[in-house]
Amino acid sequence: MTITIQAAGGSEVTLIDGPDRAQDKTCGPAEMTGGMPLSPQVRLPLRRPAARPIARGGATANGSFGGARLCADAAAAAAWIVTHLAACPRGGTLRFKVAGATKLTIADTVIADIPYSLHGATVKIAYNYVGGAVS
Questions:
Q1: What's the CA gap between 21 and 116, in Å, rounded?
Q2: Is 44 within a domain?
Q3: Cβ atoms within 10 A of the Cβ of 79, count?
Q4: DSSP state string for 12-58
Q5: d(CA 41, CA 38)
Q6: How many beta carbons lie within 10 A of that of residue 93, not counting itself?
Q7: In the list 5, 66, 89, 110, which could disulfide-bond 126, CB 3.0-4.6 Å?
């Protein structure tokens, strides 16, 4: 799975390159969590005695995912994290792709936090997001 984010009017930035561990690639996703809380206008009909399923179009999403990036050495790992944090858009459209095809899009996503840790030549990174409309 490849995960990208694109700010409005900006270029698409790859956050997760896929499952293969290779130098200068961020493998993952790892420790992926998520949720799609129901909005109040959806919750109310579901509490009625004869509740019927309701399409979740436009539902919001939140969650996190992470990966590990292998760099040439510890100095390259430290340089990559500084460059990546500066270049990574903090909001935009989040896309989850499988075999190059987009399977899930979350519009108006805000990357709330990007915790990371350096382990020699490896950077472990996570992205915590809150999103808008799911499609």
A1: 18
A2: no
A3: 13
A4: EEEEE-BS---BT-EEEEEEEEEE-PPPHHHHHHHTSTT------TT
A5: 8
A6: 22
A7: 66
The answer to whether residue 73 sits within a structural domain is: yes
Question: Which residues of the chain fall below pLDDT 50?
Answer: 42-46, 51-54
Six-digit token string for 114: 């990007």
Strand partners, 106: 94, 134
Q: Is 120 helix (H, G, I), strand (E, B) or coil?
A: coil
Q: Which CATH number fits the domain that encloses residue 64?
A: 2.40.30
45, part of any domain? no
What confidence tens digit (pLDDT) does each residue in 58-83 have? 567 888 999 999 999 999 999 999 99
What number of helices (H) and strands (E) belong to the chain? 2, 8
What's the structural domain count of the chain? 1
- Domain carrying residue 93: 2-34+59-130
The token duo for 38 is: 């129901």
Tell me, yes or no, whether 51 lies in a domain.
no
CB atoms under 10 Å from CB of 49, counted, come to 4
